[in-house]
Amino acid sequence: MKQREFTIVECPRDAMQGISKFIPTAVKIEYIKSLLKCNFNVLDCGSFVNPESVPQMADTNEVIAAISEVETNTKFLVIVANERGALRAVAYPKIKYLGYPFSLSETFQRRNTNSTQQDAFIRLAKIQEIAEASHKEVVAYISMAFGNPYGDAYNTDMAIHWAEKIGSLGIRTISLADTTGQATVDNIQKLFGNLVNHLPHIEFGAHFHAKPFDWEDKIKAAVENGCKRFDGAILGFGGCPFAKDELVGNIPTEHLIKFLNENNHISGNYQISEKLLNEASNAYQGF
Q: Is the dihedral of CA 106, 130, 86, 183 positive or negative?
């Protein structure tokens, strides 16, 4: 297969947000600084959301201020859930991307952002306007993109429909999120195969949650169907608390990079030091 450029998004925010014991701000800062040495394309490093909903991210403003002092080519991404969060985020010059979770599941949309699906789309449009005015970009996460555990209606046509609507707002990066580990090789192939060809002006990414034994099939299916952007977390930590399965976590970044390298997908100018990855994973295990 011809070598292609991939975007690797490391997600310490997703890895840390589910930890119940508050991680001291200074520890978060040092950990994220260790990740900045690794040369990731993008770092999902915080969220400007209600601290009552995600207490672990209550200090995002302090973390962003501290890591903004580091000279790096890595672009910063933060999650926002409403216009207020977006306005807070765009005040930081080093933040490039505002991530917004839009769900195919009405139940999860209400749980995650306390809004209906239609209201969430209107909110996303307003966040896009804020981002454009500040020369930032929005990454729209379509959560529950591969199914949901709530019994809400789901099919791949729904995901394609909402991807088209989100793209009509001028958003050029959409990440399909396997929020509770529901993705199968079949629906990964259908979604990416259709979307990448139907909306070629949009970069489609994958934010998979998986058990330790089934991550590789998901990555392989996405790559073979045109996905060139992947989220991961060192050691596979994190994941959605609603999964109700402690084995379901993020794709381990170190496995993702090894897979792409071994299968000749990443060109030689994208390298992450194994030593630096190990140092960062050791730091994370100290939380």
A: positive
Residue 24: C-alpha distances to residues 15, 59, 62, 65 (Å)? 15, 9, 11, 15
Q: Residue 186: enclosing H or E segment and its boundaries?
A: helix 185-198
* Sole residue written with tokens 């402690």: 246
φ, ψ at 4 (rounded to 5°): -135, 160
Residue 271 has a pLDDT of: 62
Least confident of 210-224, 229-243, 273-287: 273-287
Domains of the chain (ranges; CATH) run 7-284 (3.20.20.70)
Cα gap 159→104, rounded to integer Å: 7
Task: Give φ, ψ of 242 to 5 degrees.
Answer: -80, -5
pTM of the model: 0.92
The answer for residues whose C-beta is within 8 angstroms of residue 134's C-beta and 6 or more apart is 90
